[in-house]
Design goal:
Two copies of one chain form a homodimer. The first copy, chain A, has helices at about 15-25, 40-50, 70-80, 115-120, 120-125, 135-145, 160-165, 215-225, 255-270, 290, and strands spanning about 5-10, 35-40, 55-65, 65-70, 80-90, 95, 110, 130-135, 150-155, 165-170, 180-185, 200-205, 230-235, 245-250, 270-280, 285. Chain A has about 300 residues and is α/β, with parallel strands linked by helices. Chain A folds into three domains: about 1-90 and about 180-190 and about 280-300, D-Maltodextrin-Binding Protein, domain 2 (3-Layer(aba) Sandwich); about 95-180, Periplasmic binding protein-like II (D-Maltodextrin-Binding Protein, domain 2); about 200-280, Alpha-Beta Plaits, CATH 3.30.70.
Chain lengths: ~300, ~300
Amino acid sequence: MGMTRVAFQGVHGAYSELAARFLIDKGGKTAGGAHTIPCESFDEVFRSVERGSAQRGVIPIENSLAGSIHQNYDLLLKHGVHITGELHLRVEHVLMAGPGTSMKSLHTVRSHPQALAQCSRFFETHPGIRPEAFFDTAGAALSLRGAGTAGVGAIASAYAAELYGLTVLRRNLENEPHNFTRFLLIARSPWKLRGGTPTKCSIAFRPASNTPGILFRILGVFSLRDIDLLKIESRPDPASPFEYLFYLDLAGSPREPRVERALAHLQEVVTHYRLLGAYPMGSGRVYGAIKKRNFRSRRK
Amino acid sequence: MGMTRVAFQGVHGAYSELAARFLIDKGGKTAGGAHTIPCESFDEVFRSVERGSAQRGVIPIENSLAGSIHQNYDLLLKHGVHITGELHLRVEHVLMAGPGTSMKSLHTVRSHPQALAQCSRFFETHPGIRPEAFFDTAGAALSLRGAGTAGVGAIASAYAAELYGLTVLRRNLENEPHNFTRFLLIARSPWKLRGGTPTKCSIAFRPASNTPGILFRILGVFSLRDIDLLKIESRPDPASPFEYLFYLDLAGSPREPRVERALAHLQEVVTHYRLLGAYPMGSGRVYGAIKKRNFRSRRK
């Protein structure tokens, strides 16, 4: 019952690491749990999986406020890996500080500029507290363990607060509660398809021509077979400015004959087709559910 | 010949301000030029335009690496404004420092964490230089005008370097040259449609039902009339998790009968329809072209 080595971008306490723990140790079924490996860049996450130094990788692919992370779609197309799972994680920003720092004594709060912007209302109503830009949310939390941090707080996940032994001063600091990030689990081998599990497929392609109506013909491949589309997105191809790349998620498994036929039919009208992965449909999660199972004690 | 007051998010020297100058003063045709107004948030940009304290606003809507900025689509749907123009701006990161700081004496380089990450290869090949997180690229450039910045550089646009009188140490610091941001110009009144100008429309809607094939029926509205689609994107509706919002850009003007009929037909199969704007198709720009016209002398 070995642990699964999972690469993620960031430092311990990052939202990606939390997603990795949910994805690997889902429902307590995986006895070994996750041994999470911090990486400096997304590219390093992919390379770790490709060369086998990690068995899995976890990457954010889209956020409900900030959109699809094209950079990670590019890396999915570049590297020989497969999507084997997904998770929608509620991004809940928590205000934390070292023991002894109270709300009243706070004068500075550190976090990633995006997280600080997502909590702008807190700073408007607390003009005495200065926001300070930091590389990442978990790094800001980690920094509070150092000396000279009296009166300094951080905005990060409740998971980071717990990991670094910080006091939670306030939860749900974000302006906008509908803040979800979708994470993908990646591996060298495809997910072993099982009957009965609702499955989805993620594909990428470029239309074979640039004529009006080509997309209509492409979608006909699915609609004529009653296959439900879960996501569609066009994007100017970075390698070829006047061409478009499409990302498409559909409900179904490539083992179902109608999906198999649709994917074969699709390849008649597109170029650069790639099945990025077929994997169980994910669910939404918040941090509360993971805490009870005490991931912290599992860390080395 | 008054100047046009244009609101943008950020501080002077931001990529958004550069986009505003391109959009307002295009080709030198607008004699008055742009009087740019910095705003703390995107919401403030929209509010400034809505209440008339700015005649125009400029917002980023998508980036070739980071995807669509859903937050700004949400603000377009929330506020009573219209898209009246667009621009694709090449994001070219420049390394700059105050006079007297050379490449050799650099020990720290400040910028927004995303810009620092986009230039990670520079830091890998210069291990003696420490990246430092800052709120924004232009703010990092501005900070170099203060005291105690010997040996400190910033990564921002060449425009910011010029604006703040900094020395450009190296251009094109980014790992990935295909880094474009699409900016939208917004106003209280729609763009006055003129014959002969290639026009595009941006619309948003929610399908009237959630059945397989509904998207195929929706796209039929356009393909049966030979109308070319320039962008399509689905997104889980933040206000209603199991519904999808669609963004669609199409080639044509609502004054063309076939486009007018298609948009009327569309409203039979969708709900929450909104024409976000009809506006001239934009082109791509890089900073070099603007510099010659010496925007700096126009600033108050």
